[in-house]
Design goal:
Blueprint: E1 12-14, E2 23-31, E3 35-42, E4 44-49, E5 52-57, E6 65-72, E7 82-90, E8 104-111, E9 114-118, E10 125-128, E11 147-151, E12 160-162, E13 167-170, E14 180-182, E15 185-194, H1 204-207, H2 225-230, E16 232-242, E17 245-249, E18 252-272, E19 275-282, E20 300-305, E21 308-313, E22 318-327, E23 331-341, H3 358-374, H4 393-405, H5 409-417, H6 447-464, H7 467-485, E24 515-516, H8 517-534, H9 537-554, E25 563-567, E26 570-573, H10 579-587, H11 597-606, H12 611-614, H13 625-638, H14 642-660, H15 681-689
Parallel strand pairs: 6-13, 11-20
Antiparallel strand pairs: 1-12, 2-7, 2-10, 3-6, 3-8, 4-5, 4-7, 8-9, 14-23, 15-16, 15-18, 17-23, 18-21, 18-22, 18-23, 19-20, 19-22, 24-25, 25-26
Helix pairs in contact: 3-14, 4-6, 4-15, 6-7, 6-8, 7-8, 8-9, 8-10, 10-13, 13-14
């Protein structure tokens, strides 16, 4: 970490409100043609210059630290005097996406090298951002609040006070480009009427609000967005219009298409006679319509607009291919509907290799797009329902970053974040959060995912040579090992692990007790990684003995069994075997093809994307995309079985690329259709086709 020192600015917030939920503050100042803004805050901010979005930040950090953006505003400063506006949202709730810490903003605006405004001093004016309705529901169990607006709003000047001191550090990673992607077509139009429903979406983010999941309860909401949008009963007709100009009459609606899934800020201009504008969106269509709750989210916004013209930009980034407008105004003319992309900059991505194959080319493009949308400040599982920095996912995405850029800058930030706090809230001492930066007040953690941190750390050292970070992680790594020691049985195997034991999204997750062998296979690799990182020969020997125990206990003579359960005090194999368990065995080195040639041959030739059709080995439960299928492909790659690998890539992923232009969490579209780990397909394709094709 490199410290950042503001010259004059101090952190401030609206007096007495730094711990209030979903409070927004607006800062404004003037600047000339050569302007720079140094800024950080919590939870999020947007920076506008002359009404145009310049940046969203800050890059996330672990508890107690805040990364500073150093923003060159000059490209948007087209006048002698330019309006600089900062909107800051202080959420003060726990989530998978952001830590739960008091709100603040700290900023210095430079004009031609001299400070023109700074928080805690002169130059900025402060107003309550009354445009945004405060009491709305959470977007999801994993993310903070939805967005509802009432415009125009009267913004009242507020008094700000200096907050507690903060630890400021440099951003350390590139900035997004904020390019606009226009919606291409209007695929359907129609009318709607408002009807009460027999039942409404009542996700845990609505029904479980408490001190463990902070937010506003349903009866407190000023605008109940999901409830309002669910009442809109539509009749749609296919349409082939361009989306550059859209006119909506009274109680009419339209669905727009980007042509592929993207992530960013919803942006459009509207001239309205006055009324309510509803927006909802999703990655796919269900029966020709947008299902805005499909992901367990409230993927919707509401604008109450008085007559007039508006240029609107959402505060939060969202993921979608399809967006639906509803208007109850007599007339609403919408132009320049677009998504301002919030993703890893294209200029840092290497040149695409010549793949010579339409399907592989589509999959490669989808992998790169998936990487870019899930890699802004940390590696995210998905840019939609969670935007969370998950371990295990990061193991795969970190490889993609290096393959596409030749660097590991985002990975350093990601790994470094886990080392920042002295301890983590709620979870047991020694354990790491399953995703971070985040706060999980229900105490849930995934013990397996903590092991992936160390497995990734070993590879990170090989990629980066960053011994400093690895040495800084040593104490935390051995504390984690100490946590697991408490679950070792007499054979050295982990048993009866607590909380959420996760193998992959398949039958494997139902076979996690009492002794789970995929977990212990990973434990073996985890110990080997520590031994290699820190020269721990004794731990390396332990890992070898553990692998032998797993082979002796789990292998049935034909397959590796997933688990053993205690019956009358004795551990007995359950007899249940999954495809993913076999892949774990070979991936972790517990099994080798020389030791199990028949099993290896069966996995190579009888398994893969066609097995669900031919149903070979019906007693072996299928793997899923996350992560079984990826372990399979990695094994094929390691053995140089490129023809088989490419055939599998086409079978597993081309239908995803064709449908959304991204790669998915599962092998069906029932969950996220844009998952960061899935971008790893680009790694294999680059290794096979593009080693020398560097931009």
């Amino acid at each position: 970490m490199k410290n950042f020192n503001f010259k004059s600015a101090v952190p401030v917030w609206i007096t007495g409100e730094e711990k209030e939920m979903n409070v927004s503050l607006c800062l404004s100042a003037k600047a000339g043609r050569r302007a720079r803004l140094d800024i950080t805050g919590h939870a999020l901010y947007q920076v506008f210059v002359n009404g145009k979005l310049s940046a969203e930040g800050p890059a996330r950090a672990g508890h107690g630290f805040y990364r500073v953006d150093e923003l060159d505003l000059s490209p948007l400063c087209t006048k002698d005097e330019n309006d600089v506006t900062v909107i800051v949202a202080g959420y003060n709730v726990n989530s998978f996406y952001l830590i739960d810490e008091p709100s603040f903003v700290c900023a210095e605006l430079y004009d031609n090298g001299k400070i023109a405004a700074y928080t805690g001093g002169d130059g900025f004016t402060y107003q309550r951002y009354a445009d945004r309705v405060r009491k709305t529901q959470r977007y999801s169990f994993q993310r903070p609040f939805t967005e509802a607006y009432s415009l125009p709003a009267e913004r009242q000047t507020v008094t700000v006070s200096e907050t507690e001191n903060k630890n400021f550090i440099e951003r350390g990673i590139p900035y997004p480009d904020y390019e606009k992607a226009a919606f291409i077509n209007v695929i359907s139009k129609g009318t709607f009427e408002k009807k009460e429903k027999d039942e409404y979406f009542n996700d845990r983010a609505i029904s479980n609000i408490s001190d463990k999941l902070k937010g506003f309860k349903a009866e407190e909401l000023d605008v109940f967005i999901s409830r309002e949008v669910e009442k809109l009963d539509c009749t749609l007709t296919p349409c082939g219009e361009k989306a550059d100009k859209l006119t909506l009459g009274k109680n009419s609606c339209a669905i727009l298409d980007l042509s592929a899934e993207l992530t960013g800020f919803i942006s459009f201009d509207i001239e309205t006679s006055g009324g309510r504008l509803y927006i909802c969106f999703d990655e796919i269509l269900r029966e020709g319509d947008v299902d805005f709750t499909r992901l367990g989210t409230c993927s919707a916004l509401i604008y109450d607009l008085k007559p007039g013209k508006y240029s609107l930009v959402s505060f939060e980034p969202y993921s979608m291919r399809y967006l639906k407008f509803y208007s109850d105004a007599d007339c609403a003319a919408i132009t320049d509907a677009a998504l301002i992309k919030f993703e890893f900059s294209e200029k840092d991505i290497r040149k695409k290799p010549d793949l010579g194959d339409g399907a592989l080319s589509r999959v490669y493009d989808a992998a790169v797009s998936t990487f870019r949308q899930n890699t802004v400040d940390v590696y995210m599982d998905c840019p939609s329902r969670e935007r969370a920095g998950w371990l295990c996912d990061s193991y795969f995405t970190s490889r993609t970053e290096y393959a596409l850029t030749g660097k590991s800058e985002v990975e350093r930030n990601f790994l470094e974040n886990f080392l920042m706090p002295e301890k983590f809230r709620v979870i047991p001492a020694g354990m790491l959060p399953m995703c971070y930066p985040s706060d999980h007040y229900d105490g849930t953690y995934i013990p397996n995912w903590a092991m992936w941190y160390v497995v990734e750390l070993e590879e990170y050292l090989g990629r980066s040579g960053d011994r400093e970070l690895v040495n800084n992680a040593k104490k935390r790594v051995y504390e984690l090992l100490g946590f697991f020691r408490g679950f070792e049985n007499k054979d050295g195997l982990l048993e009866k692990l607590q909380s959420w034991v996760f193998i992959e999204w398949s039958k494997s997750n139902e076979l996690t007790q009492d002794i789970n062998y995929p977990t212990n296979m990973l434990y073996c690799k985890f110990k080997k990684a520590i031994a290699n990182l820190y020269g721990d020969k004794a731990l390396s020997s332990e890992a070898d003995k553990l692998a032998e125990k797993i082979r002796n206990q789990s292998y049935t003579g034909e397959w590796f069994c997933d688990n053993a359960v205690y019956v009358d005090g004795e551990a007995r194999l359950s007899g249940e075997c999954t495809e993913s368990c076999q892949y774990y065995a070979f991936f972790t080195g517990v099994a080798k093809k020389e030791l199990y040639p028949k099993l290896w041959d069966t996995l190579v030739h009888d398994f893969g994307p066609e097995r669900k059709k031919n149903n070979k080995h019906p007693k072996i439960y299928f793997a899923n995309a996350f992560i079984g299928n990826y372990l399979r492909l990695e094994l094929l790659f390691r053995e140089g079985l490129y023809d088989e690998l490419l055939q599998n890539v086409r079978g597993y992923f081309d239908y995803m690329a064709q449908k959304t232009g991204t790669l998915w969490e599962n092998d069906g579209d029932y969950a996220s259709c844009n998952h960061g780990f899935a971008s790893h397909v680009a790694v294999w394709l680059l290794e096979i086709y593009g080693k020398d094709d560097v931009k």
